[in-house]
Every structure is written in C-alpha cells, then in structure tokens.
Amino acid sequence: MTREKGTQKARRPSRIKTPEAVFLGQLANQQASKYRMAQGFGVLFSVSLVLQAWALANVFSDMALHQSVSLSLLVVGLFALLIRALANFGRERICTSASRDIRYGLRRQLVSHLTNLGPARLRIEEDAALSTRVYEQVDALDDFFSRYKPQVFMVTLIPCVILLSVVSISWITFFVFMLTAPLVIVFMIFVGHKAAQANRRQFNVLAMLSNQFMDLSQGLAELKRLNRTKEARERLSDSATAYQKTTMGVLVLAFLSTATLELFASLSIAMIALYLGLGLLEILPWQTGSSPVTLTQAMFLLLLAPEFYLPLRQLGNDYHAKQKAEAAATDLLEILEAPAHAISSQEQNLPVAASDAKLLGQRGSIRFDNLSWHDAGRYRLAPITANINAGERIWLSGESGVGKSSLLHLLLGFEEDYQGQLLVNDNPFQEINLAAWRAKLAWLPQTPEWVNGSIRRNLLLGIETPSEETLQAALIESQCDAFIQPLPAGLDTKLTELGAGLSGGQMQRLSIARALLSNADIWLLDEPCSGLDKETAQAVLATLKRVSKGKTLLIVSHDTHPILWADKHWALTKGGLHEQRTQAIA
Amino acid sequence: MNNVPKLSLKRLLLANPWGFIIPVVTGMAATLAGVALLGLSGWFISAAGLATAMGVGMVFNYLTPGAIVRGLSILRTAGRYGEQVTAHNHLFGLLRILRLWVWDQRVAKDAANLHEQSRGDLLQRLVNDLDQIIRWPLVVFLPWIYALSAYLAVSIFAYFITPVLLWPIAIAALLQILVVPYVCGRFASHAVHVGLILGVHRRSRFVSLFSALITLTIRGHWKDYAQRLGELDERQRRMEIRIQQAISLGRLLSYGVTILLIASSFFLLSERNPETNHWTLIAGVQGTWVVGYVLSLLAVNELVLPLVQSFVAQGQSQVGLRRLNQLHQDAQAQPEGKIDRIQQMVFKHWRGFHASSGMGNTAIDLSANLGDTLWLRGASGSGKSTLLAAIAGDCLSSGEAIINNEKCDLYSNQNYQAQLSYLPQSPYIFQQSIAANLYLGNPNASDEQLWAVLDAVCLADWVKSLPNGLETLLSSQGRNLSGGQRKRLALARLLLREAPVLLLDEPFDGLDKATIERICHSLQNDYKPDILILVSHVGSRIGDNARVIEL
C-alpha cells in the first residue's frame, strides 16, 4: 500500500505538474510549519481512532458475552473519542489559520503588484473583474488550503495505520482493504475528472447566464421604452430552464460515479461484516467448526472498516476544491506573472541624489532618443526620437494601437522595459527619483480619476491645502464655479464613481482645476475629449488652451478633436514619429 | 405585472413543494439506512459471537441479517444518489425563480432610478447573494431534517431496549440539534453579517481606488489609501476567524455531548455489583442490543456534526436574502386611461430635471401638433437632452403636459410611452444578433421590412458585407460597432415601431453628410412620424424645415 502510493506520487509530478499546481504548492510551503503541526494532530487522531476501536471492541464483546461492563476500558474508549475530537479541533484550527495566512498574504501581494502594474493592469482585465480576482478568486483557494491539502496527508495516514493494526488480526480483512483501496482511488480520480468537467461547464454556463441577465438589465430602460420587458423575462426563463436541463444531465453522470464509489465502500463494509459474522458462527465454507477471529477482534475490525474508507470519501468530496483552486490559480497567476515596475524598491534603493534637487527646481525638458517599447514580439511603440522643451505644448495624434498611451505610461513611470533612451533634463529616466518626478506631473485621462469623497477632497488630493482664494481662482479659471455654485452642497458635494450627475465636460473641468491646483508643470493628457460631444469638447479645449500657457503639455487627441493651438503636432504611426505642420493660432 | 411579494426562506421552501419532498424522502431513507447499517452489523456480529459461545451457532439465522446488511448498504448509496440528483434539480429550479424575481424587481423600478445600483453591486447580488440563498435547503434544511430523523429512529430503538434511555437521548438531541447550533449561529451571526457588508464595501473601495490609481500614485497618496484597503481586509479577517471559531467550538461541543450521551447511557444500563465491584448490565437488557445502540449513536454523531456549520450558513442565507430584498420594489400604479394616437402635445412651464443633482433645463412652454417638426437648440449644458428625456417620460419633470387635450402624467407612463419612440444620446444595443435587436422594435417584422429599415439608416450595405448578415452577433454593449453605427441601429429599431411621435437626441453625431441626408430623406418620406422632436447641434435638411426652439 505504502509503496504503491509512493510510486503514484513519483509519477504524478512528471505527468501533471502544471504551473497552477506549482503555484499552489509554493503557497502551501509558506505555511509548512503549520501543516506539519496539523500532521502531528493527524497522527494523534489516527492513533486515538485505533485506541477507541480497540477499547470499545473489548467493552462490546464483554457486554455481549458476559453482560458486564468493564469500566476502565469504557473510560479509555470515551477518552480516546475525546482525544479524537480535540485532535480534530486542533487540526481544523491550524489548517484554517494556515489558509487564512496564505490567502490574506496573497491578497496583499496581489494588490501591491496591481499597483506596480499601473495602467498595464487594464491589459489583463477591467477593474471590476480584477476585484473579483483579488477577493472571490483568492477566497476560492480556502477549501483547498484548509481542507484538501491536509486531507491528502490523512488519506495516506489513516488507511496505513488501520492496515497496520489489522494485519496481525485478520489476513482476509487486510486483503479486502488492500484490494478495494486502489479501486476506490482509481474511481476517485475518474470521478474527480468528471466532476471537474461538470464544474467547469456549469461555471461557464452560469457566467453566460449572468452575462445575459446583466445585458438585459443594462438595457432595461430601452426595453421599457420599447415595451418588451415581458419578452426579455421569457428569454431569461427559457435560458434558466435550458441551463437546468443541461446541467442536470451532466450532474446525473457525475453523481453516479460518486455513488459507485460509495457503493464500493458500503459493500466492502457489508462484506467484512458478513465474513466476520459467518466466521464467528464457525460456518465459513473453508473453515467450518472454527472461528478465524474472536468476538473482540471482530468488533475491532467492524469499527475500523468505515473509518478506512471515510478519508477517501471525504477527499472525493473535497476534490472539487482542488479543481476550484486550480481554476482560480490560473487567473491569479495571470496577474502575478505580468511584469511590473518595482516602484517601491526603486524608491527605497536610490538616495535622493543632487540631480533630483536640480530636477525639482528646474522646469522639465524631455528627450526621447530612439525610444521604443518592444513587448511580446511586437512593437508597442515604434522607435522615436524627439524633444519636448520646457513650456512647449504638443499635440500627439495617431491611430489607436500605435502606442500613444504607451508613451504616456512610460512618462508616468509605470513601464521600464523600454529600449533606447528617455532623458529628463538630460538625466536618464532610470536615475531620477521617481516620486520627485511624478510630483511634477498632472494626469488628465479620458475618464477623470476620482476617489469616493467630496469634490473638495478630490481637488486637494495629495497636495497641501491651499488658501481659499487660490482654490476659488483655480475654479474660476477652469470655469468650474459656474456649475459648482448652484449645487446645494457646493464643493462638499459627494462624487461617486457614477459622477453624481455631473456631465463629462464638467468632470473634465474639475480635472483641469485639480491640475492647476497641483502646480504641476508637466501635463499629460490622454484623449481628454473623446467621450464628449463636439460642442463640449470645443469648450473644454478652449479652457485648456487658456490655462495651460507656460506649462509643458503632451496631449493625445484624435484628429476629430484637433488641438490647433499646440506648438507642435506629432503624428505617431507604426513607422515612427512625424512632425506635422501646425497652423499655430496662438 | 402583478405585485411580487418579498422573499423569505419559507417561501423558498414552499416554492416547489413536490420537487422538495422527493429529496427529503430519499435523503431520509439514506440517512436511516446508514444509521441502521452500523447498528445492525454491530448487533449481528455480537449476536453471532454470543450464539457460538452459547453453542447454538449452527441454528443461528444468519441469512436474514446478512441480506438486510447488504440491502441497507445498497439503499444508503441509492438514497444518497437520489437525494443529490433531486436536490440539485430543485436548487436549479430555485435559481430560476430567484433570477426572475430579481428581474421583476428591476422592471418595477422607475426609469430615473434604474441605475441606482452600480453594475458591480447588482452582479454581486445576482451571483453571490443568490448562491447563499439557494444552498439553504441543501446545506441547512436537509441536514437538520436528517439529524432529527436519525435521532427519532435511535429513540425508537432505545425505547425497546429500555425506555429510561429516552431521557439522555432527548437531552442530547435538544443540545445537538437546537442549542449548540443555535448558540454558535448566534455567536457567528454578527460576524457573518459584518463580513458580508465589509465584502461589499471592500470591493467598491477597491474599484474606486484603482480607477484613480495613477492620480493617487503621482500625488504620492497611494500608500495611505492602500493601507485603508488593507485595514478593511484585516477586519474581514477577524470576522472570518470568529466564524471559524464558532464552527470549530460547536463541533467540539457536539462531540462532547455524544461522549456524555454514551457515558450516561452506560450508567443507566448497568449497575454495580457491590461484592465483585463489577458493573453488569441491568436485568432484561440484551448486551447485543446495546452494542447496536452504541454503534448507531456513533453514526448519529457523524450526522449532527455538520449542523453547526449549517446554522452559520443559515445566517449567510438570511443576510443574502435581506440584501436581495433591498431590491424589492412595489409595482407602481400605472395611470389609468388609454391614450389615443397622439395628435397634439402641449407643455406648459415644462422642466425636466435629474433626481440626483436637480439639474435640467429652464422651464419653457412648448407645443407640437400633427405634422410638426421641432428642433431644440441651445448651448452645451442648457438641458436639451434632459428636456427631451422628460418629454419621453424617462426623466422627472415639473409643469403641465397636455396630450390630446387631456392633462397627463408622463413619467414612466407606459400607455403614453407606447405611443412614442425615443432615441437617447447613448442608446443600448443588446448582446444578441442584429435581427434580434431589430425585432425588439417589431417582433413580427418580415425580412423585407428589416432590410428596408436598415437601408433607411444606411446600414444595409454594412450588414450585407458581414459574413453572417442579419444573424451577426453583436458584442457586449455593441462594442464592435462604431458610435454612429450603434446609434443608427437603435434608430432602425425605433423606426420599425412606427410610433406616431419620434424623439431624437443627437441622431447625426459623428455621421457624414451623405448619411445624414439619407436619414433625413427616410424620416421625411417612408418613416415620417406624425410629430418629430429633434435635439442636434448638427444642421440637417430636417432641421432646415423645422420650427426651431432655442433654450
């Protein structure tokens, strides 16, 4: 039995050592000492199991044969039962605590990694879906670490202990156990695969159903206007019924395999019981007239028989925990394997050099020297060579996918795998203090970035509180006061992710006010007008033109929203950067 | 739509009683077979041992118990299988009922508050809360029923051994089935509740933070915020620990009760012989029966252990239910009275506004008669779109609306809305085929009608160029369409309705001259509505012939 297990274990790594399995293994190793302690409790558990069976068997046989109760043995038996309960209690607490440590540590790691990824995280998934990975998917590992992982040890330990204690008593029982255990294991693997398939398919269909619901729900206003909500309800009902039918088809099969497994276990218990009964009656066909076991031994075997199969059956039940964990691990690995710029380490390792002080005092000029970004076999950004002088305002245009946003992300310091040179005030970008550099930047993306909180809090995010006059001046300059004043709560109006009823143009104006307040002298704008209608866009651009005088500006915008007042117009293509003529109407 | 009541666990149980009785019965059969299997084999072996010892082994009837043992083991497996299959079938039925319930609540919500729930929140309720609720019968109710029936079976057996055993059994059953799970449930319920709320809170903070990630990092503030996210996580962890402690302790207590039950049973069943200082069974009690009895108690112990967890799950289901019930919406009373084909619309001191910000247009007087075309113009932010939405009954409004010479409440009025087609600024395209999207306008449209209307909005050539033509599946929210295509497809859908009133919000945004010309032509000929109200900053032939209203 032991050897058999050993060979199986040895074969397994070469066959299915998927990255997910490696990942889960590494995570489990973080808590190796706790798992060892849990194994200790496991050993205590199995020893008390045998002890309990032995003591109760003696009590039972005394009772059956002599109608007497041996008090000391009864106490031993009940005491063993108590030890068993306590061992279980300890094991459970240690395993859940190990699982918690693993999961909460992993979660911290994920959040900090996502932070370092910066905008690159959106290449993996949008934020809402990432939050599902960070919370639900990490919690999906719980069953694996708190139940499956320790159970794998129990499933080898308990049958071995039981086999050892049985071998000296009854060869036949020993062989029944020996023969059925591999069968159960083979079945379990089969069942596991079936259940995994069923699980995965069910998960996909369920996701599809949710998607359908969300789609219809998002368009509900449209459905109501069209007066078609009843039809949509029927659609939902039909697909839910179809889902029920197909899933049941799969589950009937999956459960059937589990049932076969259970039947195996029950039948072999029944077989042993029958053998023992007939043996005690001395009427076994090959052994009439003498009994192979005493009543005490028979009782002992009977008590141990269900315990022999129990861990195997539990592992079978928990097998889906492994599947679930591996599916989750795939998603989590995708995040962790995305190469990230280690911001914090850079910040810590580099002392604030003299050049940083210089950098802070100076107005930034930026130079790209044959700068390109090659990633996964294709250019994200073709090699470019150009200069941005301090105080220059540059319009960057180009088709989607040529690397306009990538260039901005480089400047924001979220990517470091670029080729060529990126120089700030003639200092290589890697050598400057990132925090100091970033403090000089203002960032105005397509959808303005807001945290939950009042308008005031969002405007003053991360800067020293300015005087009320400065604040008002910035609001007037960005033309925000016109719409903030009528608001009942004024600057203390709460902003949420939904925008609190402010229009896209108004949100962009608030971003401009924030940029003004931050005193940043390098403004990076990523299609600030693409979500706005033409009229609003024009108005926002006019404001930008006015307020950004004297700032260094790099504004990405489509040809549909031309930045006619820019000093330079760069057209970015797959071939590189081309400076266009501008009719600067300054 | 009828008024759908709130959800409760009782309603869930009674939702499909027959579908639920089958898993209960099969599961009970399996449970009892499991308990009997252990008890009977114990009795069988000890009786066999005793028979041999007494020298009557040869006449002992071993065939019947042997057959029963085998039969029970088969019954147990088959019952367990039947229970799993039928219970899951029932569970999927519940899932369907609950999803439709959520849908009904969404439909009952009025237009202005439809997007009160963010997408993430709704999805959370739809997936997680539903999951918590539908597993209630499977995780909470069934195990409880099984434990109860197992205890009943053991008590009957105990009654035949000696009735006095019923006392400890009753006390133990009370403790294990009610008291311990209830106490643990109470102990954990606060943590369950807080944990769920924290979960929602944590997610929304995560999304909010990450959507402002770049600004937070360049302002050097990320660490503070990330730390607060970490604190939420830490609080969640403490809740998790509390729940786990409740479950583990409950199990330990349950074990303790079993041990005490066995000990007290032995105490009641035996007496001390003062001379030999030995304990012997009291008169009239068969040792073999006691063996069976104790073994079945051990089997019952395995059944009651999961109950502790189930009471915690009960708390989770209840929180899920409460959260789902927050979606509950009483169906609005629809204004009575049918509205005939709209001939005239008069608005007095009419103002549309958004509920959240109160922003909208300045109140105006407006009227439109049969054959009229109106062009609403105004600077950005003057509230043109809000005004149009208010006319469409999609947005809150103040003032007076007189339709066909009768005062009428427009907001969410289905009778009124059936008479008009409104194209909002960003219309919704469903993740279905092009044809299915168009059928929403008119389910009985023929293929010719579909092509004609596509031609009217200049989409026919594009659709023809697609490999799957009308059956082309559109991606989520029409993302594989350009803004202009999306709008024209929505317009085509509206035109199929042939409603007398057509309200268009910026229909020409992002379209070239020729396309605008073609659409204008359609709107003036084949698809000419009785009344057309247009909001646009782009000039067009329709605009040239329209009565202009400046806001």
Short description:
Chain B: It is a multi-pass membrane protein. Chain A contains 19 helices and 13 strands.
CATH architecture title of the largest domain in chain B: Up-down Bundle
As for the number of domains of chain B, it is 2
**Structural category of chain A:** alpha/beta
Uncertain runs of chain A are 1-14, 344-354
Distance between the termini of chain A: 87 Å
CATH domain topology of the domain at 345-358 and 391-412 and 430-580 in chain A: Rossmann fold
CATH class of the domain at 345-358 and 391-412 and 430-580 in chain A: Alpha Beta
Largest sheet of chain B: 5 strands, parallel
Overall pLDDT of chain B, averaged?
A: 86
Provide the residue-averaged pLDDT of chain A.
81
Low-pLDDT windows of residues of chain B: none
Strand content of chain A: 5-15%
Number of helices of chain B: 17
Overall body shape of chain A: elongated
Largest interface: A-B, 142 and 147 residues
Can you list the strand order of the major beta sheet of chain B?
Answer: 8-9-10-5-11
Number of strands of chain B: 11
What is Rg of chain B? 36 Å
Name the quaternary structure: heterodimer
Largest sheet of chain A: 6 strands, mixed
Q: What would CATH call the homologous superfamily of the domain at 345-358 and 391-412 and 430-580 in chain A?
A: P-loop containing nucleotide triphosphate hydrolases
Organism (chain B): Marinomonas arctica
GO molecular function (chain B): ABC-type oligopeptide transporter activity; ATP binding; ATP hydrolysis activity
Domain ABC transmembrane type-1 (chain B): 24-268
Pfam family, one (chain B): ABC_tran
